[in-house]
Design brief:
alpha/beta, FAD/NAD(P)-binding domain, 2 domains, oxidoreductase activity
């Protein structure tokens, strides 16, 4: 059983550690031991960079779920398989002999930050942002007022969200926010089950979407078309979606043509696409069976209307002043049957010893170095770094920057922080005076990379029987059983 199991017993862990790391300790060279907390894009990109640029480094990637890849697995839309190809690169990193994956271990539950700092020379926190920002307006707790994060987690199979069961019996979904996540939700809901049946969307979501009565999706933003956060790729996909008509409010797009010459090229291209779509609007053939996608600008929700469930949203009509949305006294009420907030994520403080900014929802840091609670010093000498920053403690990805950008943005941020870690080792900011033992997994049910491969193989096997790339397993206990070779 031990030969096939992916759950590390204490005996296995000790043997693996000795066999994998013994060569690095021979010859008097002390390995530089680094723990990365979070096995999403930020963690894997940092590990990739450190392996390439820091000699004699040994990395443990610790993840609270039994499975790796974070936002790539649970955030990327199922109809965007090309974006998930980065998993191939992450897999190569994980299978490097200088790396260990330790799944099913959670900071704040299975170990503390002080534990990690005692047992590694450096710790990089990359555990992401998994909570929602709220609007804090009346009746936000009405039934069928959800977050886009929850909805995405539901159809992408994040454990704990399989019972979300959004009510799709009404005809209208309103998405509050105009980023790519909101557009992803709109596209998934309006695509229909036939377009999604060969993706890795969960079976329960596919079944629910096959029964959906949603015909209209409103994409509401507080500012104007020039400030919309979705990218041209996502807009193009919506405009080309079969059996779906995009409808603009002409007043929202007035005066755009005269601004075109002064716009940066990316914004100019997406604005031209909006204007082209508007010009073709009257020529579009809408039928009773057509779905409708309706971007709406200059509106801020001020009240959810309904008794037991949401029935409509009251909006303040905004005007734009210095790129900011300023509410006027004018109001508009628009009926809806389901609402998804998509106004951003925030991180949680996983350990009380961490310098965490609750208002921003991220770790207090400068360029990835975690700040001490009490700051001293004024320049960037080594002594000053020790005064200002927690030596050997770093953060990257959304935990450090807030939820901004795409995977490429996260890659660039993580490469930058990883470069700082390498320089701090090479410049003796982090002093490697003694070997560090790594995380004590005694008594913990840990999923190794071999365990993940067993889960992966089983998901692919289940998917193959349904014509899908995989059928995600959503129960943690089932994942652990499979990783254990059972």
């Amino acid at each position: 059983m031990w030969r096939n199991a992916g759950l590390l017993t204490v005996w296995q862990w000790g043997r693996q550690r000795v066999s994998r790391f013994a060569s690095s300790s021979s010859g008097g060279s002390i390995p530089k031991r680094i723990c990365i907390v979070g096995a999403g894009p930020a963690g894997f990109y940092a590990a990739q960079y450190i392996l390439k640029h820091l000699d004699n480094s040994r990395i443990d990637i610790v993840e609270r779920l039994p499975v790796p890849f974070g936002l790539v697995r649970f955030g990327v839309a199922p109809d965007h398989p090309e974006v998930k190809n980065v998993i191939n690169t992450f897999t190569k990193t994980a299978e490097n002999p200088r790396v260990r994956f330790l799944g099913n271990l959670s900071l704040g539950t299975d170990f503390t930050l002080d534990d990690l700092r005692d047992r590694y020379h450096a710790v990089l926190l990359t555990y992401g942002a998994d909570k929602d920002r709220k609007l804090n307006i009346p009746n936000e707790t009405l039934t069928n007022v959800l977050s886009a994060r929850e909805f995405v987690a539901w159809y992408n199979g994040l454990p704990g969200f399989e019972h979300l069961n959004p009510d799709l019996s009404g005809s209208t979904l309103t998405l509050l926010g105009q980023g790519n996540v909101a557009v992803d939700v709109a596209r998934i809901v309006l695509s229909g089950a036939d377009l999604l049946k060969n993706t890795d969307i969960t079976d329960y979501a596919l079944e629910a979407l096959s029964r959906s009565n949603i015909k209209k999706v409103l994409l509401v933003g507080r500012r104007g078309p020039l400030q919309a956060a979705f990218t041209i790729k996502e807009l193009r996909e919506m405009l080309k979606l079969p059996n779906c008509v995009t409808t603009w409010r002409p007043d929202d797009l007035q005066d755009l043509e005269e601004t075109l010459p002064s716009l940066p090229r990316p914004r100019k291209r997406i604005t031209e696409l909006m204007m082209k779509s508007l010009s073709e609007q009257t020529a579009q053939q809408s039928t009773a069976s057509s779905n409708s996608f309706q971007p709406i600008f200059f509106r801020s929700p001020v009240n959810f209307i309904g008794r037991s469930r949401v029935e409509a949203i009251e909006y303040a009509v905004n005007k734009l002043v210095d790129n900011r949305a300023i509410p006027t006294d004018e109001r508009e009420t628009i009926p809806t049957d389901l609402v998804c907030r998509s106004i951003g994520y925030k991180s949680v403080n996983a350990d009380s010893s961490l310098n965490f900014d609750d208002s921003k929802g991220c770790v207090s840091n400068v360029a990835g170095r975690v700040l001490k609670r009490t700051l001293t010093g004024s320049d960037q000498t080594i002594d000053d770094i020790e005064d200002k920053y927690e030596t050997g403690l770093y953060s990257s990805g959304w935990l450090a920057t807030g939820p901004t950008g795409v995977i490429l943005t996260t890659m660039n941020n993580s490469f930058g922080v990883a470069d700082t870690i390498c320089k701090d080792f090479n410049n003796n900011v982090i002093r490697v005076k003694e070997d560090k033992p790594g995380l004590d997994t005694n008594g913990k049910r840990v999923v190794s990379w071999e365990g993940w491969k067993l889960i992966d193989a089983e998901e692919c096997r289940r998917g193959e029987t349904k014509g899908k790339p995989r059928e995600k397993i959503v129960k943690i206990d089932e994942m652990l059983s499979i990783a254990d070779g059972k």
